[in-house]
Amino acid sequence: MADSKKPADSSRPDLEDSTSVVERHEGLLAQGAAQAREKQVAETGMEPVSLWVFVASAVVLLVAGGVLGAGGKLFSYNPHPQDYTRTEFASDADTGPTIGPILTALSKRGKNIYAKCSGCHGSTGNGDGNQFPPLAGSDWVTGSTERLAQIILNGLSGPIDVAGKTYNGVMPAQAPLTAAELAAVMTFVRNEFNDVGDIVTVEQAANALKIYESRPQGQITVKELNDKHDKMLEGEPVDPATMVDFETLKPAAAE
Amino acid sequence: MGNLLMVRRTISINFILRKPDPMTFKAFILALALSFGVPWLLIIVVPYGKMRNLEAVHFEMDSDGRDEVYVPRRSGRITTGSAVYGANGCYVCHTQLIRASYAGSELGRPDWAGFRIKDENGVTINTARETTPYDYVGESFAHVGIMRVGPDLSNVAGRIQGYLDDPLTKADSPENWLYLHLYNSSFKTKTFNNVAGCPSQTHLFEERVVRGQGSPEAVPGINMDGVEVLPTGDARALVSYLLSLRKDDAVPYSINYSREKKKAE
Amino acid sequence: MGSDSDSQTKLHDDMELRARIDRSLRHPVMFFFASGAAWLAVALVLGFISSYQSHDTRFLSGVGFLNYGRVYPAHVNVLIYGWGCQAAFGLIVWLMARLSRKECTCAGVILTAGHIWNLGVLAGMLGILSGYGSGKPWMEFPSAIWPLFLVSYFFITVWSFIQFRCSEPGKTYVAQWYLLAALFWFPWVYLTAHLFVFVFNGHPVMAAGVNAWFKYALIFLFFTPVALGTSYYLAPKVTGRPVYSYPLALFGFWALAIIGPWAGMQKLAGGPLPQFMPYVGAAATVLILIPALAVGVNILMTLRGHEAEVGSSPSLRFTVAGIASFLVLGLVGMGLNTPSILKMTQFSLTGYGFEILAIYGFFSMCAFGGIYFIVPRVTRREWLSRRFIGWHFWLTIYGIATVVVCSIMGGLFHGAAQEAYNSAWQDAAKISYAYTVGTTVAWGLILFGSLFFLLHLLLMWARLGRRSQHPTLLQGEHHGESPHGPEDDLDKLHTAEA
Amino acid sequence: MGSGNDNPLKRFSSFWLGLALFGAFGLASLVLGIGFTKPGEDSFDRINEKRRTAIKSEIEKAHAGALEAVEGSFSTVGTQFLETAPSGVEKPEFVLPGSATQKNKAAGGSGVVVPEGFPVVASDAPVDPAVMEKGKLTFAICSACHGLEGEGMYHINKTGPPLAGSEWVTGPVANLIAIQFRGLNGPIEVKGETYTPVAPMAPLPLDNDSIAAVLTYIRNSFGNKASPVTPEQVEAMRGELGKPMLSPADLLPPVPTPGTTPN
To answer: Touching A: which chains, 3+ CB pairs < 8 A?
Structure first.
């Protein structure tokens, strides 16, 4: 759009120049200044279509052809897919090695069981810093295994000091657990959030269950734990690197 | 003067170029109707008619051990519930489509499309399956959805049963789980630990001061001082509809695409 | 000199005719633009609320009618039918009258039909918010409203068709192809989709398929041709140059006409309908890059050498932004619809980003260009403030770029995480969090920008614009006084004449 | 500009042409849509529809049978109410207060009447343990006042009279059955202490077996030893039902030696 203050530019035909010559149309100009300033819509140019546009279109067509190829037979209106066999998706549950160190085997199982615990203690084992104590860096987890096992099985009530802070919540009992499950979840919390480096064997866990059954029902307190249970569980320790079958947890030869 | 000449030239060029247009109105409309009509026929009308006359699939004696028409097991207030689902925009965040494995990987998720179960020999069978055209039976519009802000709901009724085993849940039945989820999604668990939740649909519930013993209809697990929460008819229809969304029935051999089946052949 | 004065007379007659056409249309056109802009503000407020809710689910969630599940559909529908369609009607009505060189004789009917359309949008929005939405994306208005829209549409646009039919026979201008095609495509698409979804008792999956097709058909067969028609008018009009290439325009137009109607069903890829249909839709969306390239090259080549005008003229600046968005739309459409990526984008935030890019980045920017050109002509006042226009432009550009980048990038990550079927689905939901926050901020920017636009437009509607012979340009000489030239020079002209 | 191309006729025809072209695909859809309204005979929708119809008619048939029974019972109740007199709904085991039956009975005097031919049970007749079990269960109702061990409520202002060692319990069977049918009011002297119940003992017209069982239970528990009570004895005393509430004066005097035949 031109500005009338500019000197007339002969290369740019526009209405403003012509109207300025015709005095009798000034009134009209007042009515339609914008219309008067408009340029004519010129005729369409006849440049040929550039080769590059065709090349680019051909590339796009190629891509589109590839997309179309994924659609199977064109215009076959069967709503059930033809020649289709489902790709079976391998999930964590049925993949991975079937033989490996017992530490890995137990931790992997323990991770699934820990999903229950993560609601309070958090998926990273840090608790919530207020009501639910952390598991990471807690002496109760890294210390004697019998004590830990009894907390898990019986639940806990009353104040407890964890990592320099007193927590006063109530933990519900997690029993019934099988010995293998207890061993797995204890191994998991001791090694995932802490670096204890040993495993809790199924045999040890079975002994913990015996102690649990001989004790009256009800949540355990810190006092009772420290008085009676501050020791390691009985049972033959097993080297965490022992190769076992993931399914049975029985020793197996490495492949 | 020069300017005037230029103006004249522009106009005369206009007149010279004003040759008859090869694209007449009739040709233009015809071409337009044709370019629109072909896809209109091929991807709207014809498939619409075909799908309207969707053939039933049958269980065959040879392959399935019984001989009957496959009709998905589905019961509940589907029509009303589906309308409530739409009117409250559930489809904005939730989808209802398990894509075939060439188009997506929902089938790989353990609980979205069906479960892995153990048969009597202890062999794990994956019952997960794609959405079939029969899954939306009873609805007038398939709420396929826009985006997955929330999880897919194709198998939500099957999945909720598993949520009830969660020791932290407050719900004692699938209905109550859904009522709690709809009323305030963080009320489902005892820890109120629900980061990205569904917006509260409190307008689907009636809050009422408790008189006497309280209503047996009230949603359990919501503790508010002297106020009980009752699901309205909309909430009941919606929950009934959601509980009809499940993928746990066996489909006939002819629309079962699992590799296990192919192996058996 | 005789022939010169003849041609001058011709020019002045011509100018007089154009002034008469503009005058005959001033009420309907301004009505569509102003009510469209008002609905735009409503849509943006709703968009801001829904976007905020998508990362803070507690926001307003206790208020039934402002629940996310209702605000989001209301936002999208008001944006399309309240702003998009009304802006398109204003543009079609004015451009067709100008291009056919016919005065409008039915302004009253258009205005009445426009009021009915607005009532429909209002009733539809309230219907959605109060829980009577139909639950079908982009068709959420209660089902009583669509026949009303069709009738109202007919009485708004049929006059433009008549004007075209009654115009002087001769060469049809490129913009006219697009506008005429849009006139036909809208009822074809709208009526077909609503009949197949609401009236016929079909298979539910096919109803969903028609609904998915409707979205893309509305974008490619209505908003796109209107925006391109406007651009094909403005670019040569403001620069005074011919459109670069007629064959290229022809190629671009028919490419759109042939490709457009196939797109849309890729939303149901892998679903239980004939397997080829979603992939035909995906392929068509990829192919949209071809008309985008043709149009982009043609219009940008037309503007070549007029960079100063692109910088200074509000209309051209918005048009260039719109055409650039169209090219981006084509590229994004190609990127997002190849089968391996479609898996991820089918149900992620990208779909929203693509729609917003089409409706807001492309169509609305071209429509703003048209509005900045048309309004001074029909009101006979110049835009009041170059600053308002500048703020509107930049806030919208930054906002839309952020929305689109956040939605498309966030959606790709979101989709990739969803495809990782071995990790918990909640992880995928968390990934999109940061991007939804970005989207909210961007909607705030866009809302702020459009408030300037709405205010500016309402002032113009109230005939409070500048009385001047000189257009409001975004760049101009500064002489210490107004950059637009002397104020009120038209009134002085009047006085002198008297 | 009024040229040959722009005339009213052209405008008019263009209007209708526009309408026709705008609606072209809608009209085509409508025409084709008529074909869609009914799915084919062997399509899934029709099969499903037929199946649903069959299930529905089965349910309706089942309902229809049940409905008849319900309707019949409605008419019986209605008829009974229409017969207005409260005695209309009286059954042998229920006598409505204020009804003619009750008035007739009241006219016969307030004392416990032992009917002729009241069955006699030997004091050393064996006690069936199953009856004792049943009686113990029913006694749960009684234990509210009489205590779980029949100790009564001596400490609470001597309200609940004890059953353990009570001469009334081991006394005439007719007294005990009558109390079950008529209730008992007023202070009563048991083991030399006067007990004043806070509320009268309400009549508890259970079926014969239950009454017999609970009475057998109290007569043979808490250190008591007396003859069991048979359902026949209870049946024989049915005439007491509907008479006004007993006072201790209406009862037959307890016989100090347990186990003897009443009367």
So the answer is: B, C
